[in-house]
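>> received
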Amino acid sequence: MIDGGLNSYHLQYLLFGALWTIGLSLIAFVGGGLAGGVIALCRVSPIKAVRWATIAWIQIIQGTPLLVVLFLCYFGLSIAGLELPAIVAASIAMIVYVSAYLGEIWRGCIESVPRTQWEAAECLALSRTQRMRLVVLPQAVRIATPPTVGFMVQIVKNTSLASIVGFIELVRAGQLINNSIFQPFTVYLLIAIAYFAMCYPLSVWSRKLEQRQQFGNNRGTATPSVTTA
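>> returned
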């Protein structure tokens, strides 16, 4: 990098880091969402062993700092002879972390669907798979949307820890720039502004979705998904 004050090259490098922050966030959300959906369904499984296994997984991941998960995926696997690029290790760690939290969030949303809906679907002689696919999950998705969007803010902010394993996202890009120009206040102020620009729209969207859901519930406009007619 070029010594001196902040210039257009540094701003472009910060933009490069911000794009990788968004990219890692999307990888974590998509991968963690797929794994979290499986975990949520396993949490409400009628098989006790499956439920206990997923509970153990959630407790272990939620009880472990993300930083430790990153170290295990990057340094731990390399000790075992599996050398992974920083982007791959960071993606695996974020997917593992996100899956535990989204799985538990979505499990709560599934179980919050009124029991009358479950019972009505059972009265129609639907199989468990049909009850989940046609009755429970469509309602659970509406309930889960606000907290899921809200959790996306946490995903974006937690990607900053990926700089520990050398992945060049927004924070790591800022560190490299600061090591060149030695203007920490300016550099980290720009980083804070960039994170705010990425997270604030998600926060507003989450609040609007939550308010819309509460307004619908208060008005009683929701119609039952299953009828016995």
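>> Residues 32 and 96 are 6 Å apart (CA to CA).
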